[in-house]
Amino acid sequence: MATALLAPATEAGLLTAAFRAAQARRAAAIAALVAVYYRTRVDVEDPSSIENWLRIMVPRILREHQIGASQAALFANTLRRLEVPDAPVFTFTAAPDANEDQVRTSLMVVGPKANTKQAADIRRLSEKQFTPADKAALIRDLERATEVKISGAVARHAQNGARHTIQEGIREDPVALGYVRVTRDQPCYFCAMLASRGRVYEEGAFDDSDPRFTGPGDAKVHDHCQCHLKPIYSDDDDYLKRSEYFRDLWLEMSTGSSRDAILTFRRAYEAFIRSTAS
Questions:
Q1: How far apart are CA 110 and CA 31, in angstroms?
Q2: Is residue 164, in this structure, part of any structural domain at all?
Q3: In what helix (H) or strand (E) does residue 178 lie, and over which residues does it extend?
Q4: Distance between CA atoms of 159 and 94, rounded to whole angstroms?
Q5: N or C terminus of the chain with fewer C-beta within 10 Å?
Q6: pLDDT digit string, tens, across residues 93-129
Q7: Ramachandran quadrant class, 227 (left: phi over 0; alpha: psi -120 to 50; beta: rest)
Q8: Is position 16 within any domain?
Q9: What is the pLDDT, as a whole number, of residue 5?
Q10: Structural domain tally of the chain?
Q11: What is the pLDDT of residues 136-146, one digit of tens each?
Q12: Structural domain of residue 50, as residue ranges?
């Protein structure tokens, strides 16, 4: 079994860990704000309340995206000076602003639209099998689940400014060897699987619209994801060594064809996480 996961204790390693944690905290704060406003101010039967929610909250999400992009540029430039001080001058710059229409559409899809459709489905359930009290309880559960989905989408959009900044900078930096995925200590199975691939350098981009993170690309993120990227300037990078933890888990736990390997890894990895938490 793989050894315990330890974050690198070097200056660059600690800087990277602090950056990822700070981005996650900011994303969690804005996600909670948007979800609470939805719970307390939005009536899905009242389009004006939905529009008011979007009008107030979308600019705040866009602002967090901008702040994240600026903080990522500062982080990446500081990291570069630490790791390759004698390299030709290059400056990471903040990624462009998020697309307002995409953010609005994302919130509508996971929030009011999904809630309205699923609530209507619940109300149509047979009265012989579900009493009015049963249906009311199901709708309350649906509303709580909708808040979770909204908070996940918000967190993704808020952090994508930082993610895109680093990913685009890596493509332009003449001495960058690629990136490594930086996860929280116990990420979901999908993030662990991608982190196991170590150093990556390709054209894949973050997916801004598909929370199922399907399709190609090693830089995929999903709702509630806390992963970020670290530029790699040496194959001896401590975070590459850290990714070996996930590589070892993948080799131990995955079997079969590509699809079967992912399934067996997920089952074994999630059981492993539960066992370490108990």
A1: 13
A2: yes
A3: strand 178-182
A4: 13
A5: C
A6: 999 999 999 999 999 999 999 999 998 999 899 888 8
A7: beta
A8: yes
A9: 59
A10: 1
A11: 999 999 999 99
A12: 11-277
